[in-house]
Inverse folding.
């Protein structure tokens, strides 16, 4: 079985217009949270968010994939022609994750990296 996508991010120039579009398109109900709008997971799906950075890139999409070893997957991506833009970084705060099969919440440290294909 492949690694699951656990979150998505939609970057845009105009957050209000983007929220309206996706609300009408998919019946999403974005909730404002600071400079972003959170999109709750629907049955059988995952949650995500929309954000307007206020600078380039204005339009982008990011898929967050759950892996057990970020450094190993970045190395694998490089072997396939990808390029690491940001090496793995430990985040000091905890990331809250809701397991898909239950309503129990688990907190765990997160390590993130970024690559470009």
């Amino acid at each position: 079985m492949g690694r699951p996508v656990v979150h998505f991010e939609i970057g845009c120039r105009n957050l209000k217009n983007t929220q309206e579009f996706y609300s009408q398109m998919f019946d999403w109900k974005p909730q404002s949270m600071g400079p972003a709008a959170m999109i709750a997971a629907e049955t059988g799906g995952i949650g995500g968010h929309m954000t307007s950075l206020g600078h380039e890139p204005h339009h982008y999409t990011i898929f967050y994939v759950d892996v057990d070893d970020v450094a190993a997957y970045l190395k694998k991506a490089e072997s396939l022609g990808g390029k690491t833009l940001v090496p793995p970084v430990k985040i000091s705060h905890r990331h809250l994750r809701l397991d898909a099969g239950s309503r129990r919440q688990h907190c765990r440290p997160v390590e993130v990296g970024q690559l470009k294909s």
